[in-house]
């Protein structure tokens, strides 16, 4: 293995860059998992396009990555809840070759009952987690398919698996993302483009801390961290459509992981639907 200094993965960095480089676009890079993705990808030698609503914070990360890893970085300040977000992203990325898209942003702005916020207040969040996600997958995925190489990591949530009180639109939109990602995994395998749903549970991020603080809850000291989760996602890209953390770690002998169960479901339903709509 040829690890770059600072990388926490067991990846062969040259192979990884060859398949997914030279640029990674990290959507939601200003803190938590997104910032950690950027750090670990920069350590592998990726140039990083860093996106969030706070360009000043991203500028600091850009400096850090350039200094520590000698890579190029780009800051994109955009609100993903805005209807024209994709146009801004495409324009700012310009001709840079995005070989890896990490769509990380996606936590809800409020953890409240459905009726606590108005339908209009929820609209931006739903747009970010549906329209903006599929526009990014469509735009950058099309380029990857044309190049016959690339990868997409969609950071998902256990919320995708079913409805939950106070998380109605979060569960609904995370279900959308999970099904989108698994379908694209099935469609793009033949084009050498990998899609991974990195499905996680409660994780120690600034957003999670802010939500807990808003509800007067103490932060548990045993939450998984971004530093623990990100390398698992990078390692899993290209092997499964879905990795469920922590369920898919430390499986008993002979036990099929949830990710592999979901892969089998995707393959089976693809085969069945082909009898009706072709392949
Ligand atoms: N933390 C958890 O416990 C947990 C559990 C399960 C799943 N997840 C998933 O993990 C991912 C990351 O979650 P997180 O806890 O780090 O919180 P998050 O609020 O999704 O923040 C992640 C990043 O997204 C950016 N972002 C958020 N809203 C944005 C917007 N409207 N426009 C542009 N950028 C935006 C944030 O930057 P700015 O604020 O600077 O814009 C930040 O850099 C999400 O997809 C979430 O669903 C998290």
TrEMBL record:
Pfam families in alphabetical order: adh_short (PF00106)
GO biological process: fatty acid elongation
Superkingdom field: Bacteria
Alphabetical keyword list: NADP, Oxidoreductase
GO molecular function terms listed in the Swiss-Prot or TrEMBL record: oxidoreductase activity
PANTHER family (alphabetical): HYDROXYSTEROID DEHYDROGENASE-LIKE PROTEIN 1, VERY-LONG-CHAIN 3-OXOOACYL-COA REDUCTASE
Protein name: SDR family NAD(P)-dependent oxidoreductase
